[in-house]
Amino acid sequence: MQYKLLGRSGLKVSELCLGTMGFGTEGGWGADKETSMAIMDEFANAGGNFIDTANIYKFGTSEKIIGEYINNHDRDYFVLASKYTLRDGEQFTNPNAAGNSRKNMMRSVEQSLKRLNTEFLDVFYLHIWDDITPIDEVLRGLDDLVRQGKINYIAISDTPAWVVSKGNTLAELMGWSQFVALQVEYSLLQRTPERELIPMAKHFGMTVTPWAPLAGGALTGKYLRGEQGRIKPQSNRLDENSERITRVVMAIADELSVSPAHVALKWTMQQGFSCTPIVGATKVDQLKDNLKTIDVTLTEDHMKRLDEASAIKLGFPGDFFKEDGVKLSVFGGFYDKVEKRK
């Protein structure tokens, strides 16, 4: 396992992040405690140190299992990331038990620390934008937690690019902690973050940590093989276009004698920007297979075929700036075509 810096920080994280949304059996699916422990053992033995969870995952069971594990191992080896926003526990009558507010932030982080049985979180994400709380309230609260030593770094997930941009700019001006990572859905079947979110992350030097990089297992080809899974049949992850893209992934996997999952994951890692995909697992064998991704390299031809098969329209202004390989600039009240500088 190789290590890379998380955003514009000195924090070293493994090139794959372990997703633990399935740690626990609530809801009729997931890994029991014994299996979850074995998965973390496998990850750590491979050199993995970056673990992703959230207060809502399995109603807090995920954090409890991780807490028990890390307290029987070297806590300082692990880079532990959790999240707040969504309702956790039995908070059904509390109107402030969800959302991005400072009140819910402080409540949530304290509960997460208790479940994880740790004094600090390495990375703390805002889980999803609530479109209510002012971004300055969020940034000031997160910075206070950093100053209190309860979290080391801040990050953000599932939030519009303009909100993140405003937040990081405000944080820079005020001397507050800035977001070092951006967690969004990103895969060969979901490339819409390339319109605004990923260019924004590149500009601010943030690491992208894609969730569902295998599109819920669709990119492994298991649904084309007739295997069962948790994706609903009417999902766009299983439509005609998605099947076409998946077949390209499977063809390249055959050429390299690797699994389709390796190809799909490696595609996210070879995009030319800092990207650490989150690989979830509810079985040890699933993780073992995903870990083999680090030994795979896609050629320029492979990347080109995958890019072309999964290409999306950037829309305005992305496509506008790429029109005919030129930029449009205003001179004297009219548009002149000028050569695009490399």
From TrEMBL:
Assigned keywords, A-Z: Oxidoreductase
Transmembrane regions: none
Residue ranges of coiled coil: none
Oxidoreductase listed as a keyword: yes
GO cellular component, one term: cytosol
Keyword Mitochondrion: no
Pfam family, one: Aldo_ket_red
SUPFAM superfamilies, A to Z: NAD(P)-linked oxidoreductase
GO MF entries: oxidoreductase activity
Residues annotated as domain NADP-dependent oxidoreductase: 15-310
Name of the protein this chain belongs to: Aldo/keto reductase
